[in-house]
Write a structure and sequence with these properties.
The complex is a heterodimer of chains A (595) and B (171). Helices cover 40% and strands 14% of the residues of chain A. Chain A contains 22 helices and 17 strands. In chain A, strand 15 and strand 16 form a beta hairpin. In chain A, helix 7 packs antiparallel against helix 8 and helix 9 packs parallel to helix 11. The longest helix of chain A has 20 residues. By secondary structure, chain B is α+β, with helices and mostly antiparallel strands. Chain B has two domains: 71 residues; 86 residues, Glutaredoxin, CATH 3.40.30. Helix content of chain B is 47%, strand content 11%. Chain B contains seven helices and four strands. In chain B, helix 2 runs antiparallel to helix 3 and helix 6 runs parallel beside helix 7. In chain B, 29% of the residues are buried. The chains are: A alpha/beta (595), B alpha+beta (171). The structure holds flavin mononucleotide, iron/sulfur cluster (SF4) and FE2/S2 (inorganic) cluster.
Chain lengths: 595, 171
Amino acid sequence: METKYTITLCDAEFSSEHSIGLKGAFEKAAKANSLESGLRFTTCKTLGLKDKGAIVVVNPGYFVYGDVTEELVNKIVAEHLVGGEAVQENLIKEDHLFNRSFKTFGDSEFFGKQLRIALRNCGNIDPDNIDDYLANRGYEAIAKVLTDMTPVDVIQEVKKSGVRGRGGAGFPTGLKWEFTQRSQADEKYVVCNADEGDPGAFMDRSTIEGDPHTVLEGMSIAGYAIGASKGVIYIRAEYPLAIKRLEKAIVDARNAGFLGTKILGSDFDFDIELRLGAGAFVCGEETALLNSIEGRRGMPRPRPPFPAQSGLFGKPTLINNVETWANIPVIILDGSEWFSSVGTENSKGTKVFALAGKVVNTGLVEVPMGTTLRDIVYDIGGGIPNGKKLKAIQTGGPSGGCLPVEYLDTKIDYESLAKAGSIMGSGGMIVIDEDTCMVNIAKFFLEFTQDESCGKCTPCREGTKRMLEILTRITEGKGKPEDIAKLERLGNMIKKASLCGLGQSAPNPVLSTIKNFREEYEEHINEGKCRAGQCQSLLSYVINDKCVGCGACKRVCPVDAISGEKKEAHLIDQEKCIKCGQCYQVCKFKAIDKL
Amino acid sequence: MSCNDCNKVGDPRYDELQVYIDSLRDKPHFESYLIAVLHRAQGLFGYLSEETMNYVSCDMNIPTAQIWGVATFYHFFNLAEQGKHTVSVCMGTACYVKGAAEVLETLKKELGVEVGETSADKIFTLDEARCVGACGLAPVMMIDDEIYGDLTPDKVVAIIKKYREKAKGAA
Ligand SMILES: Cc1cc2nc3c(=O)[nH]c(=O)nc-3n(C[C@H](O)[C@H](O)[C@H](O)COP(=O)(O)O)c2cc1C
Ligand code: SF4
Ligand code: FES
């Protein structure tokens, strides 16, 4: 049988004994009430509510009970778990700034510096169950908007919140809504960009998979505000689970009267349709996305006209990213004042990042704007594994840049990251340690964008190809002294002469690594050396005097490059060696050096 | 309404595609559903053949050239038939010197295809790969996510035979 309630047992002083005692009390009470299954128990150290004694959290709904005694357990089981009504007088109602960030997650360092607004429900509710969403203030925002607010009020509220687009460019969301609202037309569209194409990014996928209704609710609110009755979610075909969740959520929302005609008895009609992508990164660009929804090749369109004037099927269209949509219901319910209390002067609220690379804790994190890179890498991410040294942090994926260690105290907000030479981007964050070659990482991103260029503009199509050739040459030890200047020239030219954001930002990973790690480029070119030991062609494997002549390396070498008699020192023929590293791995005597 | 000129009588997959297209016909901006229709077609046939694209063209009244343009633009669409399993032969340096060419030749003969093609029984698609990081086992091939090393022509034939029997047994 499926889990109906999750019960989290916490104790202020954390005595595991007590927690087990609590669990025992629950089990006893459950039995007495013939509630044999459907309960799932988890424990956590402390919720940060120090003076509230033993604490029990019941989910769904995030009901927190304090000072729990056996007597109260009996009451909770009888009234809440069986009767379905929380025991109101024993609930702890904390400042919601904090209860949003903890929920069932406990207080490990990983969650301590996080604040969950966009991801508030992810992991806490059953995404396939609309009732679960409803129990967590779901669809309250659309109800509030329809009963108490005019479209202009809604737009003012979003404007005042200071929220900016989470899809990469950071355009003020309220302003975009206002532009679209002011465009006169018989028909308008609201579009959700769920194309998430950056390699390594999965913020939007997780949001949809964990909380699909919030996206629908955010879009409906915008539909009311700008005067649109149609919404479209453009989602990549590579996300089958997210698609399934959305399909179900849309049907459930329709059946419950949150989508369709005369929503909640008002005069507002709004419905949402799904459109699938088909594997083209450039379709994340908003005008290419519109072409793709129209059933065409996903090539960007020149702007102006902006989608707010002439977008989908030539009608005014409002496009926002998944994470942007997920913030909207919170802004409406908790107000712009609360929302804008989180973050920095020009960047309000939180940002979700997909933390990856050489860091102990990888995964999704949501932090208030203004958190430093250091907080994320060390406090939340747990630092660099294996005692290695941090070298750089890459943000913004293939459109972004690499920041060296000196920038560790940079605050995460749109302006600070741009000033440091990277971008906020959509939320990819890759931690790079000393074992990673900066030329190689630049090459990795450029390979990606080169492959994904739609081919419309020559500078983007051909220029990235030339840059990639040069980078490849450098990593193979065949770089020429003038190559760095050539890369810079090409890069700046591509940035200026490309039509869309893909071309305009494709050179960024290369330019920013040249700016911050020029010496690594120079070493590759002038000394034929890769300090990270990643560029295979620049390595050589040499046998030192620890060799005992066991012959293991000779047997494993795929090209017979190693010679030597048994029990005598062996030798690697550098001409024949293809630097596959097999001998290095197999040697038990540390007799092979990687130079 | 149905498309009589190109009604592929006898293939139920075309009937299903037809039903799907008809379900969209009355929606506003009917042509905008082209990508959705191609998704469905690929789901039914495994890839988009010229025949299928012609059918869609006729049925949706969209020029074939435009359909071709869309199908080639998006990575997701396959224009050639894909087998049940993908066999990739590593053509990296280590494998090459250890006889990858011979392995490839054996596979071409055994499957009766060139690189990029799919065998007549639709079980295998043959591909080349760059170094897969198993040089110590060279020469190497991958079948889907499984790595096979130290290959000889005989071994290759035996492995293929195993997959073929399993696929036929399942069918
Ligand atoms: C090449 C390229 C790819 C993009 N990919 C995405 C994407 O996957 N998801 C997304 O939301 N925005 C993406 N964008 C940004 C969109 O063009 C657009 O700015 C965004 O969807 C607007 O929503 P927002 O204001 O809520 O961020 C991309 C832009 C470019 C140039
Ligand atoms: S910049 Fe590149 S991706 Fe963008 S429109 Fe031009 S060619 Fe296409
Ligand atoms: S060359 Fe084939 S596995 Fe490395």
